[in-house]
Structure formats: structure tokens, C-alpha cells
Write a structure and sequence with these properties.
By secondary structure, this protein is an alpha/beta fold. It is 39% helix and 11% strand.
């Protein structure tokens, strides 16, 4: 059974954690027209992100994804970059206040540069202290070179 009329799902601050991701992943697959998913402040780590990634991949109408203020690191970003982000047409991606470092940031930058994130207009990576200032500068330069508004990229 699907929920075709559901467009927005806010689970902000629900303390889902990695265990809860195993519970919500099958439900996410039943939401083909979801446009906005907010999983901010949920203590989701790399395991939880890997668990929901296959469901996110099927959500081709998803435009906004909020994963800020979790425990998402480079491993999760690698999964999102290889299996999810090229398959959906996100316009807004919130990843601030996580554990993303240079490896994860570089994975995102590669997708920006190869055109896989063509529809992405807003990206927040602020409060990820392990991203080097040098990589931030390269990212900002390449983001602007792709015709994206520099004010919509947040470090």
C-alpha cells in the first residue's frame, strides 16, 4: 500500500537513530510523491544513513532533504553520492552539523562538477569542522563556475 498524497514528512527531533532507520526505511518506499523529507536532529549515524539510502533512491520526486544535526560522516556521504543523489533531483540538501570531512565533501564536489547535481540550488555544510578551508574554497569556486548562486552554498 502506498501513500501517494503525502508530500511532506517532518520527523525533526524524533530521536530515530540508526535503529529507527530500519523501521522507517520500508515506509519511505511507500511515499512515491514525497517532495520534502526532514530527518534533522535524529541521531542518525552512518549505519542509519546506509539503511535508508535504498529507499531514498526510489523517491524520484524528492526535492528537499534535511539531514542536519545528526552523526553522518564521510561513509554516509559516499553512499548518498554513489547510490542516491545521482538518481533524484534534489533542489535543497541540508547537511550542516554532522561529521562530514574532506572525503565526504570531495564526493559531493565531484557530483557538482560532473553535473549529477544539476538541480541542486542550496547546499548547507556548515558546522562540519573537518572540512579544510582549502577544500571549501575549491568547492565555492566550482559551485559558482557551474552557475549556482554562491549565497546558497553554506560552510
Amino acid at each position: 500500500r502506498t501513500m501517494p498524497k503525502l508530500k511532506k514528512l517532518y520527523l525533526n527531533g524524533s530521536n530515530i537513530g540508526d535503529e529507527g532507520c530500519r523501521t522507517i526505511a520500508p515506509a519511505l518506499r511507500t511515499m512515491p510523491n514525497l517532495k520534502w523529507l526532514d530527518l534533522t536532529h535524529n541521531n542518525i549515524g552512518d549505519e542509519g544513513c546506509r539503511t535508508i539510502a535504498p529507499a531514498l533512491r526510489t523517491m524520484t520526486n524528492l526535492k528537499r532533504l534535511a539531514l542536519s544535526s545528526n552523526n553522518i560522516g564521510d561513509d554516509s556521504i559516499a553512499v548518498l553520492c554513489s547510490r542516491v543523489l545521482p538518481e533524484v533531483s534534489l533542489e535543497i540538501l541540508y547537511l550542516k552539523d554532522n561529521k562530514i570531512g574532506n572525503v565526504g565533501c570531495q564526493s559531493l564536489l565531484e557530483l557538482v562538477n560532473n553535473g549529477s547535481l544539476r538541480s541542486l540550488n542550496v547546499l548547507t555544510l556548515s558546522r562540519n569542522p573537518n572540512i579544510s578551508s582549502e577544500l571549501k574554497e575549491v568547492f565555492k569556486r566550482d559551485w559558482k563556475a557551474k552557475g549556482k548562486n554562491p549565497r546558497n552554498l553554506h560552510f
